[in-house]
Write a structure and sequence with these properties.
It contains 16 helices and 13 strands. With 433 residues, it is of the alpha/beta class. The chain has a seven-stranded parallel beta sheet with strand order 3-2-1-4-5-6-7, with helices on one face. A six-stranded parallel beta sheet has the order 10-9-8-11-12-13, with helices on both faces.
Length: 433
């Protein structure tokens, strides 16, 4: 039976920027259309690495938002280096060979003293606050969203105390998430992560994940039902603008050190050398947080003259750039652990009407989505010649004024359709295997 109220426990909420906030901001937007009152529990004084004040205006006026104070050690760690702390908090971790003593110290502290993450101190006060609220307001269904995965520990405690129906939503995996190996974990810390992961996966009534690979991974840990609900796109009120006059390749979002695609830079250098006027048309647009290693590599390849680094922009501005750039770049780390990652921006990319050039490990979940929707071309890290050929083909279509994406079957990824799937799951959860 569908609940009348749904308590959602999440860390990222407006004015937080970046991809982590979008999933539940949009679910909350559409839940009232299906007769469910969303109640959102968030920190009162969070340390967000990215802030987008414009997103505050997107919060549904039908949502009840509860706030409770949080203590975060990032507030103390910033005493040593505010910039380094902010980058680690947002997942931008320096290459291991280039880490300073301070980098190593901060990573060791983050990985070994705060398990599962630096928001763990919010667990006990949140349980005390929410236990009372749940009983007083007759709530029987909760959702926890991670990362940060410490929020699942709130769900774990509330399940034990009140036996509420609990859905644990994993936007990313836990112990196989890309940066986990960079945290310099001791054997004790690594085992504790694994133990907590097992406890959460085996105590939640239902696990929600964003990719089939994560579903398969978790099936080796639990026999609880696991359902895939991907991220998606929403209808956006974007003023139509003229397309970029340059052959712009735009990467929007965090450009991490390990996402540094040598095959892309090599392809562009060769095309500049081989194709007359290619260089005069080329523009590399980077929008969002970019690691120093990426900038240095672009410089080493002699591509600085073509670089347009716009830094972080609001979500609405990012959508505008998605619609006006000629080609959109989607790059994932070349690792077994990242095959399950389906970047949230993929779905906004797909509905933009611009062709996607996607680079990632062979067997990536998002490769199948791009292929099935005809929204771009996927390349693994061994396919430089194929990438170069496709870039040249896109360039020729650009010169002819014919470059665009002819997508198919995107409606299944609309935020409202995905919310309908969520409501159906909550109303009719499956039994354990």
């Amino acid at each position: 039976m569908k609940p009348e109220k749904l308590l959602i426990i999440t860390y990222y909420w407006p004015p937080a920027g970046g991809p982590g906030v979008q999933r539940w901001l949009k679910f909350v937007k559409y839940l009232p259309d299906f007769g469910i009152q969303p109640i959102v529990y968030v920190p009162e004084n969070p340390t967000y690495p990215i802030v987008d004040e414009n997103l505050v205006n997107e919060v549904s006026d039908k949502a009840i938002v509860l706030k409770h104070k949080i203590f975060e050690p990032y507030q103390l760690a910033s005493f040593f280096s505010k910039n380094k702390t902010k980058k680690i908090s947002s997942g931008i971790i320096p290459n291991q060979k280039r880490q300073s003593f301070l980098d190593k110290m901060l990573l060791w502290i983050r990985g070994n003293l705060f398990i599962p993450d630096a928001r763990v101190f919010w667990v006990k006060p949140s349980v005390a606050f929410l236990e009372k609220y749940i009983l007083e307001n007759d709530i029987d269904t909760i959702v926890t969203s991670g990362p940060p995965h410490s929020l699942h520990l709130i769900g774990l405690e509330l399940k034990h105390k009140l036996n509420v129906k609990w859905f644990a939503d994993f936007r990313d995996p836990w112990t196989t998430i890309g940066y986990h190996k960079s945290l310099r974990l001791s054997n004790y810390a690594a085992k504790k992560h694994k133990k907590l992961e097992r406890q959460v996966l085996n105590a939640a009534d239902t696990i929600i994940v964003t990719s089939n690979t994560t579903k398969t991974e978790f099936h080796h840990i639990t026999n609880k039902p696991i359902e895939v609900i991907t991220n998606g796109y929403d209808t956006e009120n974007v003023v139509k603008q003229a397309m970029d006059t340059k052959f712009s390749l735009a990467h929007i979002g965090s450009f991490l050190s390990d996402r540094n695609p040598q095959l892309l830079w090599e392809s562009l250098v060769e095309l500049i050398s081989e194709i007359p006027d290619f260089g005069s048309h080329l523009e590399i647009k980077l929008i969002g947080a970019v690691s120093q290693e990426v900038f240095e590599t672009i410089d080493q390849f002699g591509l600085n003259p073509y670089l347009n680094n716009l830094g972080y922009v609001s979500h609405s501005e990012a959508i505008t750039h998605q619609r006006k750039s000629q080609v959109l770049l989607l790059i994932e780390i070349n690792s077994e652990d990242t095959k399950s990652i389906i970047p949230g921006k993929l779905f906004e990319y797909m509905v933009s009407g611009r062709p996607i050039v996607a680079i990632g490990p062979n067997g990536s979940d998002f490769a199948e989505i791009i292929t099935n929707t005809n929204t771009g071309v996927f390349f693994d890290y061994s396919e430089k010649m194929k990438l170069k050929s496709v870039l040249l083909g896109f360039y020729n279509q650009f010169l002819e004024g014919k470059l665009q994406s002819n997508w198919i079957g995107l409606q299944q990824y609309s935020r409202k359709s995905l919310t309908a799937n969520l409501v159906e799951l909550i109303a009719n959860p499956k039994s354990s295997i």
